[in-house]
Known about the structure:
The protein is of the alpha/beta class and 231 residues long.
Amino acid sequence: MGINDSNITNPKVLKFLNGFYRPVTEELGELRLKAEEARVPVILRDTENVLRSLLLIARPLRILEIGTAVGYSASFFAEVCGPDSKVVSLELKEETAATARENIRRLGYESQITVITGDAAQTAAEQQGPFDLVFIDAAKSHYLEYWNAVICKVVSGGLIICDNILMSGRTVSDEYDPGRKYRTNIRKMNEFLSFISETEDADTSFISAGDGMSVSIIRNNKNGNKSMETV
Ligand SMILES: C[S@@+](CC[C@H](N)C(=O)[O-])C[C@H]1O[C@@H](n2cnc3c(N)ncnc32)[C@H](O)[C@@H]1O
């Protein structure tokens, strides 16, 4: 997705706010531009700004990312959360993961980030945790599976943040899906949003920045997750 075509924010407002965007490092700025030129999906600029604030408040050190692409957001997490932070990032495609590993090495985050290939519905379940933050940014129709795979691994008070929950407006209205091509994804995303807004395991809010984000603060839940104090 380009930087202005998410259908979520008034384009004039988006242009104005994006005028304040500054990359966290010059190298990350270059990687973003390269990815945008190649139309490789990376977190949008306004998404990044919200994430940065959340990271600086929550200060997560153990991060699980679902959906690596070229390693942009994984590197961003490693940079913003500092040298003591560790990121495990899950990617389906071997070739994409190889590009991500190369970018991560070039940017100097290889001691902080591990990229694991495979279907995240399985690889997420295989991760041991605990995690302070899980960032979900992979197949839109599988968010509930990812959530179920990780919920017991997130510490109480930790976060699960999901990107692209509004799917360029399609989640909100069929008018953004004239050919009904995304009908199944739309239904599944709506089911997922209903689920996370009602579950007793988390307090969730929705943010209409970027392509839409959900921010869930995990409660000390019945799934056996550990409290922040015990890990
Ligand atoms: C939106 S991109 C991730 C962007 C990345 N988080 C960033 O901002 O730099 C989504 C990625 O998820 C990967 N993906 C899709 N389905 C997946 C699955 N089932 N398991 C793991 N990764 C998957 C895609 O190959 C793609 O690279």
